[in-house]
Design goal:
Helix content is 26%, strand content 25%. It is globular and about 65 Å long. It is α/β, with parallel strands linked by helices and 339 residues long.
């Protein structure tokens, strides 16, 4: 007999609240597993999907991208997980009414290879800060259609990467991944988060609010081999600043961005690429990244569960509370609820 599932449903397009109701339980396909969900983290994508009504085309709908829990059912093709394993996973609220992969529910189907075991000593609410950050940053950094950097683990000196928005959740993962792959990271973040970004492995951090931020970064890159830039914010003003920086610097003139349409903001001799073309990453670099690199790194403590979780509720009833708080803005932290 299948477990009783519940979900936080968005009942209609641009509805202002989530409604907790029963949801179907779905057994896994051969390359999938099912987890009992114990923690959810919130992302700007959750805010935008609800507010703007984009991408999701069938309602009621279930959103949510970051989950952590225990494995309760395993697909026939999976041999390296067992029942009861504690894992994090990248959930995917897909269009077309396929919501078994969405995160805002008690039982979530996760597709391999975007799942990783976590140490017993780490709370689900701490671990859940990573999945979407790792997915978004890794496809920007390592896929051949974006920056095409070498996968971790690695040792330098392979060049210097500029990461704008280095204290954000996606930026934090990008800094850690790039450093683990053997690249020097020059981070860009607000002044109050400089020590935090350095704790992730960045060699230098420059204040994004400085009037001369472009000149400062160009000066910092002098004499270095710049391998490009990763914009974890991807607003017009940050992309234009990075275009100016790479135009005036030696080295590679490519920016990886996380927002669709960012390519159109390129100027000078700089190219902007987004990670939305990295659809085959699950059959190329992701298996290595999530299992051969990430699981041992998490077990050894060499990859940190950052940014720090801030628990803002308990239970699916608090999904809307988490989204509303995130919409007000956060800095160097990730909003989480426990289930």
């Amino acid at each position: 007999m299948s477990p009783q599932n519940h979900a936080a449903w968005l009942m209609a397009k641009q509805d202002t609240t989530h409604t907790v109701q029963d949801a179907p339980y779905h057994p896994p396909l051969p390359n999938e597993l099912v987890i009992k969900n114990f923690a959810i983290a919130f992302n700007p994508a959750d805010v935008l999907l609800q507010k703007l009504g984009i991408m999701i085309d069938v309602y009621p709908a279930i959103l949510g991208c970051d989950v952590a829990g225990t494995v309760v059912e395993i697909g026939s093709d999976i041999n390296d997980f067992k029942l009861g394993d504690r894992v994090i996973g990248s959930a995917k609220p897909l269009p077309g009414g396929v919501y078994k992969y969405s995160g805002f529910q008690e039982y979530v189907v996760l597709k391999m290879p975007f799942v990783a075991k976590i140490p017993d000593s780490v709370a689900f609410t701490d671990a859940v800060v990573l999945p979407l950050g790792i997915l978004a940053s890794s496809t920007c950094l390592f896929h051949e259609s974006t920056l095409g950097l070498e996968l971790p683990p690695g040792t330098g000196e392979k060049g210097t990467l500029v990461v704008w928005g280095a204290s954000s959740s996606v930026g934090s993962c990008g800094v850690q991944l790039a450093v683990a792959a053997g690249y020097e990271v020059l981070g860009v973040a607000g002044q109050r988060n400089h020590q935090y970004v350095k704790s992730l492995g960045a060699s230098q951090v420059i204040d994004q609010g400085d009037a001369d931020v472009v000149k400062e970064i160009v000066a910092a890159l002098e004499g270095k081999h710049c391998v490009g830039a990763f914009d974890a914010i991807s607003k017009p003003e940050t992309l234009h600043a990075l275009c100016d920086i790479l135009h005036e610097s030696g080295g590679r003139k490519v920016i990886a961005a996380i927002k669709p349409g960012a390519e159109a903001l390129a100027k000078n001799d700089v190219v902007i690429k987004t990670n939305f073309g990295a659809r085959d990453f699950e059959t190329t670099g992701a298996l290595h990244l999530w299992h051969e690199f990430l699981e041992p790194a998490l077990a050894a403590g060499s990859f940190q569960f950052k940014p720090q979780a801030e628990i803002v509720g308990h239970g699916l009833e608090d999904v809307q509370k988490g989204i509303d708080l995130l919409a007000q803005g956060v800095s160097a932290k990730k909003l989480v609820i426990s289930l």
